[in-house]
Amino acid sequence: MQSGAIPDAGGLSRRGLLTSIAVIAAVPLLDACGSPKEKGAGTTTEGDLSKALPAYAPSDLVKPDIPVVAGANGASTDPAFLAYPANPVRTVTGAVGAGGTYVTMTPLWGAIPPSSGNAYYDAVNKALGATLKLQPADGNTYADLLPPLFAADKLPDWIDVPSWTITKLNFGEAVRTKFADLTPYLAGDKVKQYPNLAALSTNAWVSGVWNGKLYGLPIYSSNAVIAGAYYYRKDIFDKAGVSADVKSIADLEAIGKALTNATAGQWAFDDLFGNDAGYICQLFGFPSQGYPWTTDSGGKLQHRYETDGIVEALNWHAKMVKAGYLHPDAVADNSQNAKQRFWSGKVAVCVDGTGAWNGDDAKSGAAANPGYNRQAFKLFSAKGDKPTIQLGNGASMYSYLNKKLNDGQIKELLAIANYLAAPYGSAEWLTVNFGTAGTHHTMTAGNPLLTEQGSKEIATTFQFLACPASASTVQSGAVQVVKDAAAWQADLVKYTVKPLFYGMNVSEPAQFSALGQPMMDTITDVKLGRKPISAWTEAVATWRKQGGDDLRKFYDGIREKFGTGK
């Protein structure tokens, strides 16, 4: 992905873009019993969901070098490409837009390119047959920019709304009053008039459905969204003669002992837990932060904080700290230089988002250590039995069309979205992502490479309005990285499970929003050995009294009215 693309979620507060994240809306309307009313609650029954979702019509116009592999419970690998097709196929014929002009707003991480005299913007708009007036905004402060626009009803014609921003927007109600209902245009077979949109999987659309109607267009969708991976330095393992065939937490602990040499400035591990336990939950079998509910043996809803798994994980991680297997900066809760610690070989095992494994990473790692080789452990469980991992939402970012648009304008923008959603390997994708050949990019070793002008003018903007499903592609010439990551993902998808309330857009009442931070703080203290496990037990008891039990009642109401999404 070129400059300005969305960053990998691992290690950032914006977890979930290609990682597991729940779509959490803001304050719902409550009745006297504290359960959500139908109007504006956001949640949808399974029956209404099936009526709103577009039909899935996969395309075979572009064939990946490494085909998609089907997994469990609707999961599948991303298509992988080792080189861009020499003769890209066109997936859109005839006119696209009807000459309209529209204002858009999207987040952007990186330098905002010039809007005036931008040949890239001009080239894409020419291909679209319309004028999109792009207004990219700083992704780091994007969540703070949206509430005033919603309150003043000054929304642009087309806007990207990431899932992590909607807690401030009363989105379950706002989506109904601010945005166009796309159900009449895209539900069922109606989507087939937009073939590239129809090629997005059913799972991609689920969290774009609110109150029984389809509103959102999915961005960077995938059927292999997980919290992240446990990575290791294969070159270090090979040199030390240490096996990477990890099948239990005991195997991982043995690696800690074998690869820690504090005198030589090398430690086996960085933080292996995550502030929200988003990584270690996959090993110890308790729910993620995004989907925190499970059921006990009697069918009662049980929060992740109440599980035995998180207690076992906290105890184990604190044990690793005490043994001295974690880098001192990790023990000090300093994650700022975590990537550099891994690249330089100061640590041999770390956790990160799936997007961290790419060609640019290989380039950075090789700059620090010529033998650098990042790999990921195959999924394993703490006890050595069959592992499972929660499948995240098919997309954690959606774009929406303003409700003030008329029928003709909505159809024009959907036709434009269909063009923007052309798959990797197509002529349209190359235009949207790399502009004009010779001006903005050249083909180098079979893949597009930005020119100096392209680097200045191109950033991820159009893609945050509509785009195809995610694909694994070569960066910085690192073909082997794509092959390795695709093989790992093919193994992983065999173990995916859908969590309770999957993709249901549950709108939690505002009074519960402050419950999580004290728990996160306690997790940090206990996992790093600053406080005993009894501090966690006390924190859970306090959480229950201060609202956790009431939150359970709220989700019992959701389960009764809407089901569990499974």
TrEMBL record:
InterPro entries: Bact_solute-bd_prot1. It comes from the Bacteria. SUPFAM superfamilies: Periplasmic binding protein-like II (SSF53850). Belongs to the bacterial solute-binding protein 1 family. This is Uncharacterized protein. It comes from Dactylosporangium cerinum.
